[in-house]
Amino acid sequence: MTNVQVEAVPESHVSVKKLDSLVWGLLLIWIGIALLTDVGWGIGSLGVGAILLFEQAARKYIGGDIETLWIVVGAVFVTSGISELSGIHISLIPVACIVAGVVLLLSALFEKTQSE
Question: Which helix (H) or strand (E) holds 58?
């Protein structure tokens, strides 16, 4: 007879996994609706950014880890949507790439290692 130890999965981990699935579902539904109804890039970007920022707020509420990269990406989408709606056209892809790259570099430089 063998003893098999089963590790319990923390409740917050299960909730975060469900939240990730819900957010991806919401993003796909929103993008589909935005494309079908032709609401424009401003409203589309604003919706995507709001969903991404909502996810991080929900993560904090349920006790999960907040992902700084997705906060920045959400903020870039919201900013892009607002600028598009106000008539100021900013190319989203280059800005998003630069901001995401800076966030990744800074997180790699200032991240605590396991030994600390």
Answer: helix 41-62
| Nearest 10 degrees: Cα torsion 79, 85, 89, 92 | 40
Q: Which two tokens stand for residue 63?
A: 């006790």
The pTM for the full model equals 0.71
Assign 46 to helix, strand or coil.
Answer: helix
The amino acid occupying position 43 is: I
Domain boundary assignment for the chain: 38-108
* C-alpha separations of 11 from 16, 44, 92 in Å: 9, 33, 37
Name the token pair of 36: 């079908």
Residue 108 CA to its chain's centroid (Å):
18
- 50: tokens are 């709001």
Per DSSP (E only), the strands in the chain are: none
* Inter-residue contact 30 to 47 (CB < 8 Å): yes
User: What is d(CA 72, CA 96) in angstroms, rounded to the nearest whole number?
Assistant: 9
pLDDT at 10 over 60: no
pLDDT in tens, 19-51: 889 999 999 999 999 999 999 888 999 999 999
